[in-house]
Automatic annotation (TrEMBL):
Source organism per UniProt: Haloactinopolyspora alba
Keyword Nucleotide-binding (UniProt): yes
UniProt xrefs under CDD domains: ABC_DR_subfamily_A
Lineage: Bacteria, Bacillati, Actinomycetota, Actinomycetes, Jiangellales
Ranges for domain ABC transporter: 20-243
Protein name (record): ABC-2 type transport system ATP-binding protein
InterPro entries: AAA+_ATPase, ABC_transporter-like_ATP-bd, ABC_transporter-like_CS, P-loop_NTPase
Coiled-coil intervals: none
Length: 257
């Protein structure tokens, strides 16, 4: 896997200041080009929402950022290093859409196991359990937990080792509104503690919880801005309307000779 193909020697922008920096990224999955000539910058210390409809390429982009996606061209740097570099292993946390914890182990057993795999200190286990507010359930089997609690266990695994960048793929999908609000509160606390968080969602009303929004549509970057700026630019009142307006503007732009 070569994530650094196509890097221009004359490219002197400050990669080290960015949590994520993609240039000319191209990803082909099956017969489909999912991302093509895609650029992205995510500043360190921000809570960035990656929003877009189902199939727009959010998971693919996240996979490229954490270094598990074969790329056909371009470069992705994470914390100043090529995505997937060995030195990033304990500096980047990633939670996929599918729950990645064992149902037949307790929360504490799961986290001890993942701490060992990741080489994180054993003392991290209690810290991350407290961080996701599951202390009173630490010795419960994961299979007996609610969906929201299970999501928090997955999130806890990504917090082991105190990663600087945490990438969460649709962490709130299927959760009720109360749990969603709770999780977003937790995300903000993680960022306040110094991490950079990239969170994907296809629920537009989650946009207002993000400091910065990256809007994707069919593998293209539609916008990378704050919600207030997007509302002002599009003359709309909410993220969904702004997104629709941006699509309209992009389509009109494409039709203009
Ligand atoms: N393993 C695969 N093989 C071939 N094509 C794939 C594969 N995984 C995803 N795709 C295609 O890549 C495109 C982008 O998928 P991706 O999962 O990145 O989108 P997404 O925005 O994360 O969607 P969702 O919100 O539904 O998770 C889709 O057209 C999808 O069909």
């Amino acid at each position: 896997m070569n994530l650094s193909a196509g890097r221009s020697p004359g490219d002197t922008s400050r990669a080290a200041d960015a949590a994520v920096r993609a240039r000319g990224l191209r990803v082909v999955r099956g017969a489909r080009t999912v991302l093509d000539d895609f650029d992205l910058d995510v500043r360190q210390g921000t809570l960035t929402g990656l929003l877009g409809p189902s199939g727009s390429g959010k998971s693919t982009l996240m996979r490229a950022i954490v270094g598990v996606q074969r790329v056909a061209g371009g470069a992705v740097d994470v914390l100043g290093r090529p995505a997937g570099a060995k030195v990033l292993r304990d500096r980047v946390g990633y939670v996929t859409q599918e729950p990645a914890v064992y149902g037949d182990l307790t929360i504490r057993q799961n986290l001890r196991y993942f701490a060992r795999v990741l080489g994180a200190p054993r003392s991290d286990v209690d810290r991350v359990i407290d961080q996701v507010q599951l202390g009173s359930h630490a010795d419960h089997l994961v299979s007996r937990l609610s969906g929201g609690q299970r999501s928090r266990v997955s999130l806890a695994t990504a917090l082991l080792g105190t990663p600087e960048l945490i990438v969460l793929d649709e962490p709130t999908v299927g959760l009720d509104p109360v749990l969603r609000v709770e999780l977003w509160g937790l995300f903000h606390r993680i960022v306040e503690a110094g991490a950079t968080l990239l969170v994907s969602s296809h629920v537009m009303d989650e946009a207002e919880r993000c400091e910065r929004l990256v809007l994707l549509r069919e593998g293209s970057l539609l916008a990378d801005d704050t919600l207030p700026n997007l509302l002002e630019r599009t003359g709309t009142g909410d993220a969904e309307q702004a997104f629709l307006k941006l699509i309209e503007q992009a389509d009109n732009g494409m039709r203009t000779p």
